[in-house]
Amino acid sequence: MKLTRRRFFAFLAGLPLIGLLSGISLRLAGKTLEPTPACDDHDEPTPPQTEGPYFTPNSPERSNLREKGLKGTVLVLTGQVLNTDCKPVSRALLDWWHCDDAGHYDNEGFTLRGHHFTDKLGNFRLETIVPGLYPGRTRHLHVKVQAPGKPILTTQLYFPDEPGNRRDGIFKPVLVMDVKQTASQMQAGYTFVLKA
Ligand SMILES: [Fe+2]
C-alpha cells in the first residue's frame, strides 16, 4: 500500500508525543496559538461536480455579487487555492454562480454571477448572499476554479447542517464549507486543492 502523506501523518498522530506537538494548540508566553493547518489536510484534489444547467460564460469580474434590492443573508466566503504540492496558487480564476434567496437563477443577466482571481498567496474573498433552495437540490454554490494555464475544475460548495444534504445525490461532505453565523452575516471558509 502506498504510504500517502495523510496516512503517514495519521500514523504519526497515533504517537502521543508527536500528536502533542502537531495536533494541539501550543501555549506560549500566555497566548494560545492555533495549530498551523497541516499540509496533509489538503493533499487530495477538490473533487469535480456537475456544472448543472445554469452556467453562463463571460461573467463580470467582481468579488462582490451583492446588489441593491437583493434579499437574503450576507455570505462572506474566504479561502485559499492550493495545489496538491501544498503551494498557494496565485492568479487562480474563481468563477461563481448561484441562485437568489428565492431559489431562482438569473439566466438572462449576471445577477449573482461573477469571477475574480486569487492574490499572491492564493487567497480569495467573495461577498454574496446565502443562496436559497430550489426543488431537487440542497443549498449550494457553483464555482469554476482554474490555475493559470491549467484545466478548469468545475465543482459545488455546500453548507453544513442542511437537512437537504442527506437527500441530495450530488452532495459530498468534502465540499462542505466551514461556516460561522454571526448576528449580521454568515462567514464561510473553504480551501480548494488543484492538481499540481
Ligand atoms: Fe445549482
From TrEMBL:
UniProt-annotated stretches for the region Disordered: 35-63
Signal peptide range in chain numbering: none
InterPro entries for the chain: Intradiol_dOase_C, Intradiol_dOase_core, Intradiol_RC_Dioxygenase
Entry-linked Pfam families: Dioxygenase_C
Alphabetic keyword roster: Dioxygenase, Oxidoreductase
Stretches assigned to the Intradiol ring-cleavage dioxygenases domain: 51-185
A single GO molecular function term of this UniProt record: ferric iron binding
Family named by the database record: Belongs to the intradiol ring-cleavage dioxygenase family.
Cross-referenced PANTHER family: DIOXYGENASE, DIOXYGENASE, PUTATIVE (AFU_ORTHOLOGUE AFUA_2G02910)-RELATED
This protein's name: Intradiol ring-cleavage dioxygenases domain-containing protein
Species this chain originates from: Adhaeribacter aerolatus
